[in-house]
Amino acid sequence: MSVTPLKTHRELVDSRVPGCGFPGDIFSRQDVFDNDVDVFFNKLWILAGVTADVPEPGDVSTVEVGKASIMIVRDDDENIRTYRNVCRHRGSRIMKQAGKASVGMLVCPYHQWTYELDGSLKHATHMGQDFDKTCKSLIPVHTKVIGAHIFVCLSDEPPEDIAKLEQVMTPRFAPHQMQRTKIAFESELIENGNWKLVMENNRECYHCEGTHPELTNSFLPEDFGFCPDGLGEEAMKNYDAYVARNARNREDWESEGYICELFESLDESVHTNFRTQRLVIAGSNESQTLSTKVASTKLLGDLQRRDLGDVHMWGHNSWTHVMSDHSIVAFILPIAPDKTLVRTKWLVHEDAVEGVDYDLRTLTEVWLATNQQDADLVANTHSGTQDPAYIPGPYSKYTEAPLDQFCRWYDARLKAQGI
């Protein structure tokens, strides 16, 4: 009996009908997953943490990216440095497991080779007088700190267009002084789905109204996507009111120097994929809480206004919401074809005190619920894409255009690597 050969990764991508999603095998195959990790998590810039992960000199945050492990370190001069978590002797992990620790120096647990926080090798016994320690410093990782976000690239030749993200986001984050924050709460959630499905789910709000009651409480309905077909006079009046409200808020914010305009760097020509906009929040226009009012009365930075909406930013492995009182920073790391780690951090002012300035439940309840709801959606979708009956359907041009854009960008980045 003849066996039909498996399509290559390239053939799977090429089989996508424009305007529709990818075939199911692209979410489940190990060879596709391995290519994805290499191209999208090793060769491109990814979000790997926030500055509050390492608040003091000697603090280390260890992050695993596929087979790679990196150490984010705050050195004695308060700089953020990132190294490969590999001893230069025989390859032992210096930090045995992912997570946070506070150390004086970085010491390999195998033979106690000892490294300064600047990566230089300080101590290695029994190596002889001709051993040159200067040649065995820790291997650095390309690192860019933008706001509180720590972006890393594991490639020897990182894409240069991270400069555009830095140029666009630095002035948008600046009023919130995000490096003057601390982590009030963080969560880790393993979603039972492919990383591309996690990011597709994040890039559309077609599903939001029916599945995210906590989140949509602070969203304007028209931000879910707007389809004018078949709408009555009342609905069109509501849309006109939405447009007018956005215009008033933008004029008000921009008069005080807050940048609002939509900026996208998403097409096939870019490596560093991101989008940002300052969005109006429903109700009080203050924060993504059930009341739409601030969760923390200690505002970020030196802000005096509470009603500053939501500075929204997403890239190919992360999403961020920055409000006047707190920020939610989330990023994903692929674990397996059907497993994705979602790591979320709630940032508040560095001097904010729990129980005095903010209530933890009020701060976290919206996105804790939303993340779990999204995890359920992703798991259900991943399962469905593996059904023999699955045929990718069309994206909505009104609410899911970014998904088709993501597919085209994904295709282009693979082609650039000869896949």
Summarize the structure.
The protein contains 10 helices and 17 strands.
Can you characterise this structure?
- The chain has 419 residues and is α+β, with helices and mostly antiparallel strands.
- It folds into two domains: 46-146, 3-layer Sandwich (Rieske Iron-sulfur Protein), CATH 2.102.10.10; 177-416, Naphthalene 1,2-dioxygenase Alpha Subunit, Chain A, domain 1.
- The chain has ten helices and 17 strands.
- The chain has helices spanning 9-14, 25-28, 30-42, 162-173, 195-202, 208-211, 213-216, 233-255, 360-385, 401-416; strands at 46-50, 59-65, 68-74, 80-84, 99-102, 106-107, 114-115, 121-123, 142-146, 149-153, 181-191, 263-265, 274-279, 310-315, 318-322, 326-336, 339-349.
- A seven-stranded antiparallel sheet has the order 11-17-16-15-14-13-12, with helices on both faces. The protein has a four-stranded antiparallel sheet with strand order 4-3-2-5.
- A hairpin with a 2-residue loop joins strand 2 (59-65) and strand 3 (68-74).
- The longest helix has 26 residues, at 360-385.
- The radius of gyration is 23 Å and the shape is globular.
Note the main attributes of this structure.
single chain; 419 residues; alpha+beta; Rieske Iron-sulfur Protein; 2 domains; seven-stranded antiparallel sheet; four-stranded antiparallel sheet; globular; iron-sulfur
